[in-house]
């Protein structure tokens, strides 16, 4: 280059390197633009983009007299525009020294001492956040290599990432990657030295780049086509409309040729059907669907998302039996059994109460078995935990803040044994009991479930909270859940199936449903599009919500009523998955603590039982089976066990002043059964003592021998009630 003297050919850094043989001239485009003594005096097709060859020669001669303040060589054609500043430098040297070059108006240049800087508020927390372009961490510091978005408080970028994005997107598509603001964002980036070329985006310049996407398969492939106008004939909103395979989209059929009564019905081609048949899934699903139709005597099933005229069935109805439809089952990512599926993913029919009770019992039996397997897996992970203690000082009046502070302290290690000290700000009293840790994890999980990090009624998904992202709270939440599971906390039980599958299988492999959307306005928009009954009403709806669809990146040309299905799917994927991709990645990183996420991905079915299903309510049978009964040689074991079982049944039926949770708390210090189980396992001893004793160190319940059941019951209630009352006080 005649201006900087370098042979580098790097368009991203120095602009296009151009050689003009007839003039014996080679120049970097940016070196030419930023040179202080030259202007575009010609037309665009004259010289080098309007820079006349004679002017370039004069500029080279002028620069030959100036020494670069960086490399100390002659030829420094660029000078700082700050008053009284006499620094000169080559363009590459200026980049190296972190000068600012403004590619706008007069193409001003500022040296490293006078360059413009971004204003940072003193209250803004310093730390790290995620660059939303490369997704790597970026330090929130006022330095040359880092730029802050002027329109989003929590958006930070690497300068290099922004420059590559600007060169690719061009002036028409370069905007804030978080909020899509264009004017304010471009103005600030130009001020801070980002070059935004005045051309279309690189992906728009490629000829016929989207031609394949515009092609829609329209051909009837059934063995016997009934259409007299041929297999390629397609008449929308009639029986001769072509329906494509719901899985591959590369085969089609006229509605009439496959005896389909409406567009809403699903159709699979023979190739896709054979794939499912070979895997053994398709036949099972067909049998399942046939069984459902026989049991309902031909009554049509209500699909997961019925049309507006069909009322939605209550998922909580005790009279409803949940059976999965072939469509939904084929779309599942993993071969899950029927019992594992939540109500939101099933079809509702109404069989006899006997059948409902049988399946309810089977469902609980299945979940119980899965939770036993989780218990064994978590015990394997607990082998990492050392006996060295880490103490958490928890303020009872502000558990979340003190927990966050404790988890972030330098000495905290998830592989140490956790001890919890509860304190009260008013009287500064401290309590450290064996129950403290169990109570802490229970309250912490409840807080997370109801926090702003999650949204939804029962099955919850992650929210998009930029402040939480900035403070790395999603990571901390994942870490807390992982630590809780391994250290004896309760099963969370509030994950939605979609959130769980995103963590286990990856977000790109998950198909969300309408139930995953918590925003009422977005739900209404999706329903309006989904249930549009004509092309004109669909287009009118899209016009009304054009701004929303543009922001979501889902705006597409609609030429047929069938396009609404793809549009609805795009909106769901954006709102439920793409929008929260950063929180999801951060949350997943937190769950990697102690190897929990890895085990989740290895055993998805068993972990689903504790993350997506609420814990089983304590029953007399559960508590009875939890304890192993030991007795000395002079004790009638059967008689003692009868009193014990009888008392548990009375407590369950409400014929007692204590609860099953109170009994568990009295013995173990926990009112719930941890996902990892108790260590050591709870035991019972019948001894010649006056009152029952709960040994929390050994999880041992020592029971008195009595002559009558009433004496046994009175002693149990008196001891448990008074002990727990004293602890609470």
Automatic annotation (TrEMBL):
Pfam families assigned to the protein according to its UniProt record, in alphabetical order: HECT, PHD_G2E3, zf-HC5HC2H
- Any idea where the HECT domain is? 663-729
Pathway the protein contributes to: Protein modification; protein ubiquitination
Question: Where does this polypeptide localize?
Answer: Nucleus
> PROSITE patterns recorded for this chain?
EPHD, HECT
Where is the region Disordered? 299-319
Per UniProt, the keywords (alphabetical) are: Ligase, Metal-binding, Nucleus, Transferase, Ubl conjugation pathway, Zinc, Zinc-finger
Molecular function (GO) terms for this protein are: ligase activity; ubiquitin-protein transferase activity; zinc ion binding
Keyword Cell wall biogenesis/degradation: yes or no? no
PANTHER family xrefs: G2_M PHASE-SPECIFIC E3 UBIQUITIN-PROTEIN LIGASE (PTHR12420:SF37), PHD FINGER PROTEIN (PTHR12420)
**Protein name, please?**
G2E3 ligase
Where does this protein come from, organism-wise?
Loxia leucoptera (White-winged crossbill)
